[in-house]
Amino acid sequence: MTDSIKELTLLQPDDWHIHLRDGKALATTVPHAATSFDRVICMPNLVPPVKNADDARAYRERIMQYLQASDVRAARKSAFDPRMTLYMTDHTSVHDIEMAAKSGIVQAVKLYPAGATTNSADGVTDIDGLAKVFAAMEKYNLPLLLHGEVTHDHVDIFDREKRFLDEVLVQIVRNFPTLKIVLEHITTSDAADFVLAQGKQVAATITPQHLMLNRNHLLLGGIKPHFYCLPILKRATHQQALLAVATSGSSKFFLGTDSAPHATDKKEAACGCAGCYSSATALPLYATVFDSIGKLDNLEGFTSRFGAEFYGLPVTTNTVTLINTPMQVPTDYPYFDGSTLTPLMAGETLPWSIKG
Ligand SMILES: NC(=O)N[C@@H](CC(=O)O)C(=O)O
Ligand SMILES: [Zn+2]
Ligand SMILES: [Zn+2]
């Protein structure tokens, strides 16, 4: 703990990886996101997915309608800027990329290996078949965002990220040397090392749960469904490696909550959904992590500068003040149709809260 620091004013964070979902879910997710962040990169794994610039434009309009109808403060409403992503499929075309690049609202293209995670059934089965699409993204400077796990049945769930680095990502980086790439929600020291070894065109996002938790938290003393997300939490040595790079001041690592809402009853189930919901309390969560190893000085780069710089967007001018006063994470939030959402660290006390 950093005893001397009682307040900390930061540039308002951006979230470079968030799931807002669609329809009535937006009534909960959009106010939480807009209160916490300026820019958010909205993941496209809706049903059906966001496949082209027209889909992205329509999705953004739905988000903005829920924003306007919400009771979010006017200053936060005008600062909130959802940036859209396309969901890459085996049928994504060079034309789709051109239209996305010209749209002014599509910030990146997301690759889910088919079957890797929530709503990835329409994802890519043949990466080699998409060479022209990657080349177009390189030409238009549209970043590739990766859910970096292989999906073969015989590969152990704890090895899937490392195998993706070795078998897939190495080749993409080699074949498209100027393509901007974000390895999303990294979970291993292997991924951290891989990103560090590449040029500045390769970066990574890191979630609060992968910094705060390891697989013992998930599995020891009873299974904790609200700690289950993909890629799955790894052993403590990987958690320590992620903590080291996230707090190091390296501009290759930046905030991406991967806040991924699933109703409480869908997580507390015999076949529970993957995803942790964190966007409402993301900044106190990350502050708690950085403070726990005396690295609050490096928090602002991670939360508010490095992502914008990577994406070539201006760094924000808005600010937010953290205060060293404890807060309790709500036990749940109302979600749609009478369901609830249980957030990451529900009911726990965090040492940092947002002032005002
Ligand atoms: N991270 C998760 O466990 N789940 C995400 C999908 C993803 O980001 O992989 C979701 O959409 O629920
Ligand atoms: Zn993912
Ligand atoms: Zn995600």
From TrEMBL:
GO terms for cellular component: cytosol. Pfam families: Amidohydro_1 (PF01979). GO terms for biological process: 'de novo' pyrimidine nucleobase biosynthetic process; 'de novo' UMP biosynthetic process. Its cofactor is Zn(2+). Its EC number is 3.5.2.3. Pathway: Pyrimidine metabolism; UMP biosynthesis via de novo pathway; (S)-dihydroorotate from bicarbonate: step 3/3. SUPFAM superfamilies: Metallo-dependent hydrolases. It catalyses: (S)-dihydroorotate + H2O = N-carbamoyl-L-aspartate + H(+). The keyword Amino-acid biosynthesis does not apply. Binds 2 Zn(2+) ions per subunit. One of its GO terms (molecular function) is zinc ion binding. Zn(2+) 1 binds at H17, H19, K110, D258. The modification N6-carboxylysine is found at K110. The active site is at D258. The keyword Nucleus does not apply. InterPro entries: Amidohydro-rel, DHOdimr, Dihydroorotase_CS, Metal_Hydrolase. Residues 15-313 form the Amidohydrolase-related domain. Zn(2+) 2 binds at K110, H147, H185. Keywords: Hydrolase, Metal-binding, Pyrimidine biosynthesis, Zinc. Substrate binds at H19, L20, R21, N45, H147, L230, H262, A274. Homodimer. Catalyzes the reversible cyclization of carbamoyl aspartate to dihydroorotate. NCBIfam families: pyrC_dimer. Belongs to the metallo-dependent hydrolases superfamily. DHOase family. Class II DHOase subfamily. This is Dihydroorotase. The gene is pyrC.
